[in-house]
Amino acid sequence: MTFPKLDPTGLWLGRIERPGIGPCVVTLRDGQVIDITSKTAPTVRDILERDDAADYVRTVPGEALGEPDQGHQWLAPCDLQAIKACGVTFAGSMVERVIEEQAAGDPAMAKAIRGRIGERIGDSLSNIVPGSEAAAQVKAALISEGLWSQYLEVGIGPDAEVFSKVQVLSSVGFGADVGLHPISTWNNPEPEVVLAVTSRGETKGATLGNDVNLRDVEGRSALLLSKAKDNNASCAIGPMIRLFGDGFNLDDVRKADLTLTVTGPDGFVLNGSSSMAQISRDPMDLVKQTIGRHHQYPDGFMLFLGTLFAPTQDRETSGGGFTHKLGDIVTIANDQLGALINTVRLSTECPEWRFGASHLMRNLARRGLI
Phi and psi dihedrals of 361, rounded to 5? Predict the structure, then answer.
């Protein structure tokens, strides 16, 4: 896969696997990959925790490794951070979660349910501020009609859904395979903006993510969320974190438009999008609901902000909707954040995750970095 052309004015932070060495922290300068791993900051976590993170990445000496496409194995651009995700943050996807729940994970039933309740709860929720008096009134009305759902609770109620997506260091990066649990027959990609947040709750930058979603598993029961979300290679992040500064900030995240393309081995093409301008909760509200006196993250965290995208386009059978086929190539892109490209496999066919925090610490110790 061709590595995307990233904005040369941006300040980029990422990771690659160097053969015979191990994971290395890199940036981009003048079109070159620069290894900036050092005793001062041997991990991405250490760099982001610095007060001068942006200046450090801009000026720290490093080793030039050639252009981004010169055979580098790109890793997820985070390392010791927890991987957290917010769900049901857009009215459109919220409706689809309700439909999944009502259909109990059956895509054939979903089309009929969509037609029955879509008009009654769809656009009417899009301008409601979660947790407001107006939201409480809608909640009461939906309960009286027998349409209330746990997804609507987190969509328009006071508390956001924030869950642990996958384990530390288990995310895959640009060009890697992403995995579907083999029990799933109804699933889709979820294109999202992912924030890089420090242990102090400071948002230092953003990147792209694919929160691979098993619609049938979660649709059967929300208590299966972990089984639906946390599987081998089920989380992709990348290509690199763009640090705030140099003309890029949180307001750019708030108005970011993401495009998604799925190109199948069968010739099928799905095009979708997700506009952050339509999010129901401000990104900083989601950060504050994740970290605070109630919950600490000593190594910081990466926060998926949710998606507007919920595909209903039929792929094979009428009413069957969209689901992945093995070999699908998923491209999530944004003008300011680049493109995250991955190939869909079964989780049981993706390389097993064998490199955890203890392995990283031993590797850094052998290299004299800690």
Answer: -65, -40
